[in-house]
Structure formats: structure tokens, C-alpha cells
């Protein structure tokens, strides 16, 4: 009621047209008018504030999505860079006139903790042969023991079915590295080293090159245990593998120009 009355009074052309009653009403209604205007102003401000908050929230959500996308792109770029770096290291390590080579990715590990095997994504279709040596720059990994058209199974150095001809680098003592199949470590025994041979903890063991599988001089491991019993001709020695078997991603397959024949190896159907 007050608002129409105020409009009516205000419609009069000049202040002289206002009666005493008009002035009293204007004086009484003015605070109400100011209150209504203030209320409308606050309501409009609240609406604008909410709209600004909504816009800011949506903008922040969009920025978060863009940041997450950029983070994923950066991670992928870093992973690609690290993979290329590892592959370059493999290829730089591969120069040996008696062998050709292939790079491969590890796609699976063996299900048994006691028989150490991996599966790689290279097979018969890529020219991989049974018995082919598998290495990384830090040392030998194992040899191919089963083949499929597009994959191969590799028996690791630490597998109890693995055995490689090796040398103690410092003294040239010759022996066989045989996997221990230890569930909790990556070790092999060093067999056929005579009690009279000079070996010490920390000695480096390398491939001898006499089995036709590996080039001579590749790292095999380090002697970490020496046991000299009161009887027997040989020492009991334990090697810690040189290669990092827990973080295998890419490997290098060495293919001898003339593939060695080994009756213990057989192709998968």
C-alpha cells in the first residue's frame, strides 16, 4: 500500500502541489523506501555473488582438468624419454661382431617364485632362436628356452635349471654359475672352483664365452659368500647377480651367427 501511495504523491509536478498530508506521508514512508531499495540492492548483490562463485567454480574445475591432462602428458613424455634412454643404452652395449641383436620388452614374469622365468615380446617371427642369450647393460639375464611366433620364454640366471660357463675375472678361475631359485633373492652358486683357487669376497664373475651363448666378458655377478668345508675338492661359492632382475623392462637378445645346438631346449607348439 505504501509503494502506490508514494508513487501517487511523487507524481505531483512541483513541491508546491504537495499538501501538508503529502509531506507527512513522504517523511513517514521515506525510511521504508530506503529499506526496500537496500533490500533489493542486497538481493541483487547476492545473486551476482552467487553467479560469480558459480563461474569461478566452473573455471577452477576446467583448470583442474587441464592441469591433470598436462600432468598425464608430462608423465607419458617422461616415460617415453626414459624408455628411449634405456633402449639407446642397450643398443650402445650391443656391439659384438659374433652376434646380431634384437631389443625386446618384458611382458610377463613366471608364476612360480622358485622357477625364475620371464616372457618377452619377440619370437619365431622375429628370428629369435632357442638358446639365444638375453642381457641388459649391467649383466646377463638368461637364455631363451621356449618359443612361440610372437613371444619367447627366458630362463633367468637365477633359475635352478640355468647353468652358464663363467670366469672369476681377477684370477681367471673357471666354473659354472647355477641358479639357486631363491624366492627372496637373485643369486646363483658358483660351482667347480677348486679349494686351492684364489677367490675372495667381492670378486667379479664374467661370462667365459666358451658355451657359445654369451660373448666373453659380460658381467654375471659378484661373489658374496665363500664356504670352505673340511672335505671335498671344491669351494662353495654364492654370487649376487649383476643385473637388476626386479626392474626388468627392456632386454637385448643376442643371436649368434651360428646358433648353438642344445638338446635340452625345445620349441613351444
Could you explain the architecture of this structure?
The structure is a single chain. The protein is of the alpha+beta class. The protein has two domains: 1-93; 99-256, Rod shape-determining protein MreC, domain 1 (Thrombin, subunit H), CATH 2.40.10.340. The protein has two helices and twelve strands; from the N terminus they run ααββββββββββββ. It has helices at 2-10, 20-93; strands at 99-109, 117-120, 133-136, 139-148, 151-156, 163-168, 174-179, 187-191, 204-207, 219-227, 236-241, 250-256. α1 crosses α2 (20-93). The model is unreliable at 5-9 and 263-269 (pLDDT under 50).
Walk me through the topology.
Layout: H1 2-10, H2 20-93, E1 99-109, E2 117-120, E3 133-136, E4 139-148, E5 151-156, E6 163-168, E7 174-179, E8 187-191, E9 204-207, E10 219-227, E11 236-241, E12 250-256
Antiparallel strand pairs: 1-2, 1-12, 2-5, 3-4, 3-12, 4-5, 6-7, 6-9, 7-8, 8-11, 9-10, 10-11
Helix pairs in contact: 1-2
Beta-strand residue fraction: 25-35%
Which CATH class of the largest domain is shown?
Answer: Mainly Beta
CATH superfamily of the largest domain: Rod shape-determining protein MreC, domain 1
| CATH architecture name of the largest domain | Beta Barrel
Coarse structural class: alpha+beta
Cα separation of the termini: 98 Å
The number of domains: 2
Q: Judging from the principal axes of the Cα atoms, what is the shape?
A: elongated
Number of helices: 2
By DSSP, the count of extended strands is: 12
Radius of gyration (CA) equals: 41 Å
Query: How does the major sheet shape up?
Result: 6 strands, antiparallel, barrel
Amino acid at each position: 500500500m505504501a509503494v502506490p501511495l508514494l508513487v501517487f504523491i511523487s507524481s505531483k509536478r512541483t513541491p508546491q502541489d504537495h499538501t501538508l498530508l503529502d509531506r507527512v506521508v513522504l517523511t513517514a514512508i521515506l525510511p521504508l523506501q530506503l529499506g526496500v531499495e537496500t533490500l533489493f540492492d542486497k538481493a541483487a548483490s547476492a545473486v551476482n555473488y552467487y553467479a560469480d562463485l558459480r563461474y569461478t567454480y566452473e573455471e577452477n574445475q576446467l583448470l583442474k582438468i587441464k592441469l591433470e591432462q598436462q600432468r598425464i602428458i608430462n608423465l607419458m613424455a617422461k616415460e617415453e624419454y626414459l624408455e628411449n634412454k634405456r633402449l639407446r643404452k642397450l643398443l650402445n652395449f650391443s656391439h659384438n661382431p659374433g652376434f646380431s641383436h634384437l631389443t625386446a620388452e618384458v611382458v610377463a614374469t613366471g608364476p612360480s617364485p622358485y622357477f625364475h622365468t620371464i616372457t618377452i615380446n619377440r619370437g619365431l617371427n622375429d628370428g629369435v632362436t632357442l638358446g639365444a642369450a638375453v642381457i641388459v647393460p649391467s649383466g646377463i639375464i638368461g637364455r631363451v628356452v621356449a618359443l612361440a611366433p610372437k613371444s619367447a620364454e627366458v630362463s633367468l640366471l637365477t633359475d635352478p635349471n640355468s647353468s652358464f660357463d663363467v670366469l672369476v675375472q681377477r684370477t681367471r678361475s673357471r666354473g659354472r654359475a647355477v641358479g639357486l631359485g631363491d624366492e627372496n633373492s637373485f643369486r646363483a652358486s658358483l660351482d667347480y672352483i677348486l679349494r686351492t683357487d684364489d677367490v675372495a669376497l667381492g670378486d667379479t664373475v664374467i661370462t667365459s664365452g666358451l658355451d657359445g651363448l654369451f660373448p666373453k666378458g659380460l658381467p654375471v655377478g659378484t661373489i658374496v659368500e665363500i664356504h670352505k668345508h673340511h672335505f671335498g675338492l671344491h669351494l662353495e661359492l654364492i654370487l649376487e647377480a649383476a643385473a637388476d632382475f626386479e626392474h626388468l623392462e627392456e632386454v637385448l637378445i643376442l643371436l649368434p651367427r651360428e646358433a648353438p645346438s642344445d638338446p635340452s631346449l625345445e620349441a613351444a607348439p
